[in-house]
Write a structure and sequence with these properties.
By secondary structure, the chain is α+β, with helices and mostly antiparallel strands. It contains 22 helices and 17 strands. The strands form five sheets. A four-stranded antiparallel beta sheet has the order 14-5-16-15. A four-stranded antiparallel beta sheet has the order 11-6-13-12, sandwiched between helices. Strands 8-7-10-9 form a four-stranded antiparallel beta sheet, with helices on both faces.
């Protein structure tokens, strides 16, 4: 199956390449620069010419340059998803290497299947971006200058753009090759709405508890076999100081004269340049439409506007700018410098409500409308007072916070105790009392601090300063540490007995259930099983997948029983209260709920997304399984 999808995707990639617009290339160019800016802190990024090899995947070699860039990319992505989490460098490095192995495995596979992007193809795409043009044509010199100005060797930058384009083709071809027929959607809907009837016997867990036999020696053996479960938690006691930017703000007073001075700066520097709100209707110039055709359409559109038709309605009908369709074609507000020069020149002579065009750009034609004009005026001092005061307080607190951190750092190395440092800083020290890692308070619940204060090898009374965020820091000293130790059997005998009873009860119950299912599958009847064991048969009619009466595992097991064996298909699960269920599938009923077209489309899109995700995972696995990977790190 995976091989079939690989072939299908390769067949579709050429079509996607042929239909490519300049927008994708522009996004990739910008994304690479944004990620690069975030990667400056990673050593060795500028040594692109003599990079060390990290791994080899087929014919592709991963260099330290690739790794530096990928680390920055992963760091950026993780910081977006988990803004408050600190990712250890070793973990980040391993994630990045695994990501590169998958990425280069795909690139190697695609290259081996003869899909190669030439430099000329990429240059043609880059030529759609005005910044890489000179006299209306692609300028290699402009491209090289842009790459160098952002810290890249031009050929390295070009190679990275080519890699990202190829991978984007791969993703888009997967999306376009993954689809569901109307019949498949209806079939999935039937399955989602399906109802099942079952008969079952419920066996209380207490029935099996009665069979558990214990003795002193049995419990002692169990205790020794599971000794790691019977240890005390590590505990520690800390004396610490909390340094907080927010606390410093509360002690800062701002004078009226300072607010007046800051307001005057604001008023003097206020930009009173006229602002213009602009909307547009856009048509693309492409293989299906010439420039002349686009101009004719927009001239007709302008006539319709003059006859009284609504601009917003025509945006929805005609414009091909998907990003502005839902906002009546709005391009936002310009001060005379933000929009293309052709737009700004036209706007300079327009009045509010005027429509101008068609205007020709490189690959598009536009009608623009000046929807609003405004000359901004500065707010009054009373309107700005709170904002200015908060800004001045923050500015002053940041200065005090920086100075306090510097002083704290010096005192950590020169003072003998937290109390002495607290006195010097005029702060109150806090004694945490003994606590385990599961009882830590919010101040100390930071990985670097926990690592230190629960370190078995650390000496007590060592003072440390840890910045826990951009606005907080903790100075702390461990006063006491209790390592984990084995709990004496005599003092924990009752818990050992409970644990032993639980483990043996589950084993006995599983043995009983497995034997019962084996007997049922060998033609024993559920009625006779119930009769022989003095259990009552119960029924559940119309069980649906969203039922809350059974566990999700039980429902999944019941719906996995083959409908063709209804009346003779058996399974087992554990109920929410811990009792054991043995059930028989009695019947299956299909039920179809009528859906309007919008709901049906949403259902179809959801199923398609799930299939795409499944196929993508399968393809990644297939490519990686068939790639020869050699790691050198």
């Amino acid at each position: 199956m995976a091989r079939f999808f690989l072939v299908l995707i390769m067949a579709g990639m050429q079509n996607i390449r042929d239909g490519l617009t300049g927008n994708l290339t522009k996004i990739i160019v910008i994304a690479i620069i944004i990620t690069f800016v975030g990667s400056i802190g990673w050593a060795g990024f500028f040594s692109q010419g003599n990079a060390n090899f990290i791994a080899k995947i087929g014919s592709k070699q991963i260099t330290s340059t690739d790794l530096n860039f990928e680390v920055a990319s992963q760091q950026f992505l993780l910081s977006q998803r988990f803004p408050d989490q600190q990712i250890e460098d070793e973990v980040l490095m391993e994630i990045s290497i695994e990501s590169l192995i998958r990425k280069f495995g795909i690139l190697d596979f695609i290259e081996n299947n003869d899909l190669i992007l030439t430099d000329s193809f990429v240059f043609n795409e880059l030529a759609k971006d005005d910044q890489f043009q000179e006299n209306g044509r692609f300028s290699k010199q402009n491209f090289d200058s842009y790459a160098r100005s952002n810290g890249f060797i031009p050929q390295d930058y070009l190679n990275r753009i080519k890699q990202d384009l190829v991978l984007e083709f791969w993703k888009q071809s997967l999306i376009k090759s993954s689809f569901l027929t109307e019949e498949e959607v209806l079939s999935s809907l039937v399955l989602a709405e399906q109802e099942r009837d079952i008969s079952f016997i419920k066996i209380p867990a207490t029935n099996f508890v009665k069979e558990v036999e214990t003795s002193e020696n049995t419990l002692l053996d169990f205790y020794n076999e599971n000794i790691s479960e019977y240890v005390t938690e590590k505990k520690t006691r800390v004396n610490y100081l909390s340094i907080s930017l927010e606390d410093l703000k509360s002690s800062i007073d701002i004078k009226d004269s300072d607010i007046e001075e800051e307001y005057q700066k604001y008023a003097d520097e206020f930009d009173t340049t006229e602002r213009k709100s602009v909307s547009h209707i856009m048509l693309n110039i492409d293989s299906g439409r010439t420039k002349e055709d686009a101009i004719r359409v927009l001239e007709t559109t302008r006539t319709r506007l003059a006859e009284g038709e609504d601009f917003s309605s025509l945006v929805l009908e005609i414009s091909e700018d998907e990003g502005t369709k839902d906002s009546s074609g709005s391009l936002g507000v310009t001060d005379g410098t933000l929009l293309p020069e052709e737009f700004e020149e036209a706007l300079s002579g327009m009045n509010e409500g005027d429509v101008y065009g068609p205007i020709e750009l490189n690959s598009t034609v536009h009608l623009i409308k000046l929807t609003d004009k405004e000359i901004p005026t500065p707010k009054s001092i009373e309107e700005m007072r709170t904002q200015i005061e908060e800004s001045l307080i923050t500015e002053s607190a940041l200065d005090d916070y920086g100075a306090l951190l510097d002083k704290s750092s010096d005192l950590v190395f020169s003072m003998g105790s937290i109390d002495t440092i607290a006195e010097e800083l005029n702060l109150q020290s806090i004694d945490s009392g003994l606590f385990s890692v599961n009882e830590v308070n919010e101040d100390l619940n930071v990985p670097p601090i926990l690592q230190i204060i629960f370190d078995t090898n650390l000496d007590n009374n060592l003072i440390e300063l840890i910045e826990t965020s951009d606005e907080t820091a903790i100075v702390f000293e461990r006063l006491e540490f209790q390592d984990e130790k084995i709990i004496d059997f005599g003092s924990i005998k009752e818990k050992v007995s409970q644990d032993y009873e639980s483990v043996v009860t589950k084993r006995i119950a599983n043995d009983f259930v497995n034997k019962a299912l084996a007997d049922l599958n060998e033609a024993q009847d559920l009625n006779s099983l119930a009769s022989n064991s003095n259990f009552k048969i119960e029924t559940y009619k119309g069980l649906k997948r969203d039922s809350s009466l059974l566990t999700s595992e039980a429902i999944a097991n019941i719906f996995n029983l083959p409908r063709s064996k209804a009346g003779n298909a058996y399974g087992s699960s554990i109920a929410k209260n811990g009792d054991y269920l043995i059930y028989r599938l009695d019947s299956v009923k299909n039920k179809v709920t009528e859906m309007d077209e919008e709901t049906k489309k949403g259902f179809s899109d959801y199923l398609t997304d799930q299939r795409t995700l499944s196929e993508y995972s399968e393809l990644l696995f297939s490519v990686q399984e068939n790639s020869e990977v050699t790691r050198t790190n």
